[in-house]
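Known limitations

Files may contain more than one protein. Parsers should not assume a single record per file. Below, a two-record file is shown to illustrate correct handling: read the sequence, read the token line, then continue until end of file.
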Amino acid sequence: MKRFFALIFFAAVIFGNTTVFAMPLSKKIVVIDAGHGGWDPGMVQGKVEEKHINLSIAKKLQTFLEQGGATVIITRVDDSGLSKSKSGDMHTRRVIANSSHSDIFVSIHQNSFGKSGVHGAQVFFFNESDNSEKLATLIQTRLCEFADPSNKFKAKANSNYFVLKQTVMPAVLVECGFLTNYNERERLLTDAYQEKIAWGIYLGIVDYFNPPSE
């Protein structure tokens, strides 16, 4: 699988009669927000804490993005909170994003629901941003294609997520799966499935910056 990944980190670009290879995200800046951390575990299901899965997927996504030529800023690199309070934590994430001069912001989270049968990744965007909607839709499509073809979710507008409302660049929040679904939770704990999720997000980002020629 990793050999397959490596083949798509370079895109052919034609200048006159010469074909050269360029990384698809060259000169792009991406903020990855690994949700929760430290004293804030996020969703807890048994012994599984959301914060650890968020960070693991965020780091895998960081690797793909950097290999694709992007400059990556990640809000946390270990199991630590960004403040001693939830409001302070959210404020810090906003400051990191808005001072980064980044092109896009991607926040990584895990979902939950009262019915254990519900599964599938879903991407959210602030409902007043057309570019955020475009980015969310492209990532959603790739997640369904590469991580879980049975996923019927569509990208969805949301006006409540703080990090989506308070960032100045196109921003999305990816709920990578439902920890309340046993099978999906077990998959999300594996490197292989986390890599599929990260790869789907990466390809959606590539699609956003490299739309097909009309």
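...continuing to the second record:
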Amino acid sequence: MKYKNEESGLLLFEGTILSYAVLTNDARSGVFVETFEVFKQFLKRNTNMLVMCDVLMYFNMKKTLKEYFSNDRIDIMYYVRWEQSLGGNCPLEIKLRHIIKCIGFAILQPILSLINLLNGKRKRILRAKAFFSTGYVPPRYINRNESIRKYICLQDAIPILYQEYFPQMKDSYFWYRLLISQFNSQGRYFAISQATKNDFCRLFPQLSPEQVTVTYLGKNDRYQYIENPDIKVLEKYDIDQDTKYFFSLCTVEPRKNLLRSVKSFIRFIRQEKITDLYYVVGGGKWKKFYDQLLAEFSGDVFFQDYVKMIGYVDDEDLPHLYNRAMCFVFTSQYEGFGLPVLEAMGCGCPVITSTSSSLPEVVGDTGLTVAWDSEEAHIEAYRQIYTDEALRIKLHTDSLARAELFSWENCAETMLREIYG
């Protein structure tokens, strides 16, 4: 189905997060992946879009368009995201950023308004059918326009459920605070899992289940079974080609449960006297928790000898690491979806994940699930994977089939059907 409609069918796509494509590490999170992949699908369907971008990301967006979308005709409008650009992490920082940015915005605002008025984009916006965003709220003048329907993607309720890890929630300008402050009975929302939908409807009574549509995330085509993974990728991360290893990919933060999964692994290999198995951990880190992790295992020879922290992993390298792993461990305490689990399944890598939040929705019955807070359950799952080759083969086959049920095509099509009716 094509969505190249007349002007009244214009979709305002909040694309600021697209500019993160030229950045690396933690900036390219699950929200970025969803924004990037959904945008590509909308383009494939010739959706009539005007991309809106924070002017502060102007240069990054220019690089992104040149590097990833040079063959596409993309209409873009830069604007000042006043409120969402003012947030800080402490009272002093908030005040300083507020003063400095307000001065800059006071200069930029009339200039951009004049540019968008002369090029006709401000007029087009007022006649748009809908506003779509993967997280950021619409500007006030769009919010006040009742003829423009607003569609916002709900990623997870983590900043609410685990506020101890999010001091930003005390800041009224924090993007997530702005998001939840605008929940109302007229808005339309896309939740990335049924668990996420349930959480938001439970936490915010003003949201009805009818307002929230579940749109599961998809799998990039790069995540597929590779018969002969590239040995050079293993060498890049100092992994011997004959090494047996469990693989984990996550930011090193408390919610990801990495401390428990590593501790359980060390207990397992120590109890079983295993000397040919390693635990490889990839991903960015929260410095405070990373230091806590290292302190926890200070002096532990098993951690030093059998746990390898390889840091950030390039996207193109991940399929090779998934394919070579004996299994993928992702026993998070809470996830809005759990995209790494789907990526591993797409490569046919057996998965050990937790029974919490959205993760059972993703893995179904094609992986091993454990209670996130049980070391014994972790150890038993490790034992099954390590000792049972027939189980690994079954999980490999089942995972490949299960992963095919999730696609960015289905995700985008569901969204566009909802927007355009």
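Parsers that stop after the first record will miss the second one. For reference, the second record is described as follows. The mean pLDDT is 88.
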